[in-house]
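Please go through this protein, sequence plus structure tokens, and consider how the sequence yields the tokens. Keep your notes short.
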Amino acid sequence: MAQEHRLSRRRLLTISAGTLAAAAIAPAAPALAGPLVSNVPNPLLPPGKRGTILYTQRDATARRGIWNNPAPTTGYLGGPNFPVDPDDLGPLVPLPGGFREVFLFLANAGFKQVEFAGYSQNAENQGGNVPPLTQGSTLLRQNFPAYLNYARTLRGFLDEAGLEAIGNHGFIPNSWPGGPNGGMTADDYDRFQVELEFASILGMPYMGTGGDPTGSGTKEAWDLAAQKWEAINDLSWNAHRIRMYPHNHADAYGFLQDGPMVQVTVDRVTGAPLPQPQMVRGESGIRRMQYYLDITPSTKCLCEIDIYWAHSAQHRFRWYYDWDGQRRESIFSPIDQIAAQPLRYPLYHAKDGERRDDQPVGVGEGYRMIPFGDPRSDIDYDAIFRRHRPRGYHNPNYEDDSAPGGAGDPGRSLRHAVISGTNMANMAR
């Protein structure tokens, strides 16, 4: 079920301060088009559950925007037939930049939620840039107040655009185990606490990271990661009613290395005989992330699944060596993974992909990234979203790592946001 959040007097005051801060900065937002997305009569995704991770628009938040800029970056945001005709680029126009302008643009594109991928923006934009918390290996505790005040400014921008901060890819303590404060160094503990306060000001129900619980494949490393994530969830929930989440890439759905060393004589992917026998660690066939879910509390340790990388895992991790050294086949199903434990995955990355015919099974990623709902898509998001249970619990965030067009097409990530937001809104039950 959805997590409940207490609106304390302190939080209410910080929200109000953030709203006032946004109103005090600059008289007007950039002139953008009216709302670009209208809902179908019976949408598959509720309007309040359409999000995007700002990593997709990282070029737009990083550039100087239109406000107070005599020479803003220009690009193409689409013409009168866009996005039905994605090649209708329209005229050259000044491009939004920085959080405030990008938030307003994303709201017009049909999004309601944003997931942060860091809090930095171009310092010339409204609100300035985020104060640093570290200098080299030194934690700048003296910057904590300014850091939290910046959070209030961002909250004001979100409220102005009618957006919700659903989560982030940010700081997770590295010092584990060892030391006081739940296995963290004093610096990591203090940094973690101020990051939780920042997320609380933004109103985030979840706070996360862009990585897997651990980058290792061994059972021992996943046992330790489970202890760490349960402990930091205790800290975040008790202090701020925030749940912590890791984010998966393909390796998280590879096979757990949990057996004895065994001798193998055939290639894992092709099944062809090896030039000479090799010694590897045997595997039971359990996938790493499933093992993590099995050994952590279901109501405490939640996850964000990246649908694209889960499909890449289906492509990459099809065979394993069992405890006798025999090659075995096991095909991963992302849709069944979610359906079997839907409450463990409150957040998705709705990253779409086209199959790569040039990469046989077991070789490469298997897909190339495309805008959400692109006709080239080979990921069945309609089926995935139809199996959402309970309805209204899950939070899909559109992502496309390759959306920014660089200097040659600086408006591309924003056009792709319009295409993706429109396609999310047009999915009917």
